[in-house]
Design a protein that fits this description.
The protein has 330 residues and is an alpha/beta fold. It has a single domain, classed as P-loop containing nucleotide triphosphate hydrolases (Rossmann fold), CATH 3.40.50. The chain contains 15 helices and 10 strands. Helix 1 crosses helix 5 and helix 1 crosses helix 15. The termini are close together. The chain binds adenosine-5'-triphosphate and magnesium ion. Magnesium ion binds next to helix 1.
Length: 330
């Protein structure tokens, strides 16, 4: 059965577009038919993310000016080109591998198109352009992806907050991923969103989860990572004082009570993460489906583009593998 997942947030800049695009790409690489739709109608960004110039937009479909096949562009070749094939490259495995698909529908970022969608005004000259008609067209778009494209997943990138089109995205989805980012947690806002908006959908069977992004602590400075000093875990002061190794005596790397600085930092980070997950769940009533680490190479790259394909061994990708497993189980 098709799953329709909306990436939403209370605040902007939490990582929705980055996560939705990587999620869709990895699904396609795994053999699913995944369709990614930009419904961030107030500030669309998938077009610049995919660095493409579509002739037709989701907007055109909503205004009855385009057919689905003109609006959903096929990015499957990108999966093959960047993502390569599965780890087992034998001809037999390739032949048996389920072929995934990545289709992307873009939203027009032109100012007049944004105004038009926001107001639902009949700028095309057609009369039936009321907001409710546009919503019906969006529901039809999703239905056609299911019936004609046999979509396994429809993934919707949304606008943050409580706005007409973000609520529409939540209404057509069956799984809502409320994205929060570390360091800019708005617990009160997220709780309000969970209670007032998500609650009205979950009553009717929609599933909702927190997706905690940009979790800190993974970029350990290289001088700490490379440190070969050993630290005892036996005493409370162990994180600050190195084990005495004796003058000229080599450190005992196999000692069970000894750990490198980096592994101690990682343990501390994991404990903080576990506490934070509990706190978030208590505060919002929603389970954390995944905690995506923050990586500087993603945040500060000149152009992050489908890291999950470019770097299959990256811990970011590994976390997406786990997110997919969690979503498959929903
Ligand atoms: N896990 C991560 N680690 C490091 N950087 C990240 C991570 N996730 C997202 N980012 C970075 O955070 C920035 C904001 O991400 P993005 O544009 O996806 O957020 P958004 O929620 O879609 O924003 P908006 O609400 O404006 O649409 C981008 O520069 C992106 O590369
Ligand atoms: Mg975005």
């Amino acid at each position: 059965m098709t799953k329709c997942i909306a990436f939403h947030s209370y605040k902007g800049g939490t990582g929705k577009t980055t996560l939705a695009a990587n999620f869709a790409a990895l699904l396609a690489k795994k053999g699913y038919r995944a369709f990614l739709l930009d419904l961030d109608v107030y500030a669309p960004s998938l077009q610049s993310y995919f660095n493409t110039d579509p002739k037709k937009w989701i907007n055109d479909f909503l205004y009855d000016n385009a057919e689905l096949k003109e609006v959903v562009l096929d990015f499957t070749p990108v999966i093959d080109r960047i993502g390569g094939s599965s780890t087992n490259n034998s001809a037999e495995t390739k032949a048996n591998a389920k072929r995934g698909q990545l289709g992307v529908g873009f939203c027009n970022a032109k100012k007049e198109e944004i105004y038009k969608l926001e107001g639902g005004s009949p700028a095309t000259g057609k009369q039936d352009t009321s907001k409710i008609h546009l919503l019906r067209r969006f529901i039809l778009l999703r239905e056609l992806l299911i019936s004609e494209y046999h979509a396994d997943y429809v993934i919707i990138d949304t606008s943050p907050g409580i706005r007409y089109w973000s609520i529409n995205a939540l209404a057509v989805a069956d799984t809502l991923l409320l994205t929060l980012k570390m360091g800019d947690l708005d617990i009160a806002g997220t709780r309000k969103l969970a209670e007032e908006i998500y609650g009205s959908f979950t009553k009717f069977g929609t599933k909702s989860f927190l997706l905690w992004n940009r979790v800190a602590g993974y970029c350990i400075p290289h001088n700490v990572q490379d440190d070969r000093m050993l630290y005892s875990t036996a005493s409370p002061s162990s994180t600050t004082a190195p084990l005495p190794t004796g003058s000229g005596t080599p450190a005992n790397l196999d000692h069970p009570a000894s750990k490198s600085k980096s592994s101690l930092l990682m343990e501390k980070q994991q404990a903080t993460e576990t506490d934070m997950k509990k706190f978030l769940t208590n505060e919002t009533g929603m389970e954390v489906i995944s905690a995506i680490p923050c990586y500087c190479d993603i945040q500060f790259s000149r152009k992050e583009f489908l890291t999950v394909l470019e770097h299959p061994e990256h811990p970011f990708t590994k976390q997406f593998e786990r997110l997919i497993q969690a979503v498959e189980a929903v």
